[in-house]
Amino acid sequence: METDVLIIGAGPAGLTAAVETALRGLDVTIVEESLTMGGQLIQQTQVLHSLPAAFEPMRGFELAEHLRKQVKDSSVHCLLGHRVIGFYKDGSVGISDEANVFPLKAKKIIVATGAAEKAIAFPKWTLPGIMTIGAAQTLLNRDFVLPCKQAVIVGSSDFTMDVALQLSEVGIHVKAILEKNSTVLASDIEKVEKVRKKGIPIHVNSSIKEARGIGRVEEIDIRQGEQVTTVPVDAVLLDGGRSPILDVFYQLECSFGYQKELGGWIPQYNPFFQTDREDVFIAGNAAGVSSQGVLLLTGMIAGINVCQSLGVIPKQEADIETRSLWREIEILETKLCPEAWKARNAHVEDYEHPVLTNQFIS
User: Fold this and answer.
1) Strand 115-117 to strand 242-244: parallel, antiparallel, or no bridges (unpaired)?
2) What are the CA-CA distances from residue 82 to residues 20, 100, 223 (Å)?
3) What's this model's pTM, rounded to 2 decimal places?
4) Cα 298 from Cα 293, distance rounded (Å)
5) Reduced to 3 states, what is the DSSP secondary structure of residue 259?
């Protein structure tokens, strides 16, 4: 099997990259482990306001459906329920549906594998009922299952605030949000105030000392300074942040750099979201954990520059569009997470000559 462009991952970045490349006449194939396209957007019911100029504000699952429709209206080949298992010596990609394995040859590859949630460890943290906050959201919004009756959330990101509000709306008692730092991490102050108005207390300088229970979590000890309080719960939801999923890049022998504000280790890439492998581009959380709007923009930039590298559009046109999309990334990231924007600049400059970089991201 042969294709012009192979896109690994059908989350928001992978789908926007697919649309950019397919609409310009390239033969595009998406490989996605799940049976549905859209990634984490599928279970997000909150309204996403900070999206690129080409998108109206909409709920996460609505954005997923919008992107899926765009892909279905194009000529993209979607291999759902498939995954990349390796690479052959001739450069082709090994694809498996868990029953069969076949090679796929691509001129260019865009890797949009996303990010994985990080847990927060404490004594007895493996008891049933202790889960990542994303898992709780999936149970609630995708599977329509109440994950618990009374919970404590550890972590205070914007994502925590979204899920806390969603849990409260369906009658789940969120007893507290705990943050180990001295300030709340969420950047959306209005959303934090909504959480407080719901009667959900937010405790800074706080952590879980220990969990206990027979067969599942039944109570936890909360440490605040020198004070320890025991609280009965049937769930603890952990928001330890996210880190890029990098397996494919290791197999491709890409170079890496470390940027804590972008999730840790990420592949090196230039302003065109091209790695040090000439045939491999990157998009989405794999290029640095960020907001949904930024993920869409990285997919668009990667798609445009894959088209340019394959001679579908002239370089001048691609550069103009790339420059415009970088300006949108700057607007969104400086608004939501200035440190992430600084880290992304530093990461690109570490890889690419600053003069070239400044043409696009200054």
Assistant:
1) antiparallel
2) 22, 10, 45
3) 0.91
4) 9
5) strand
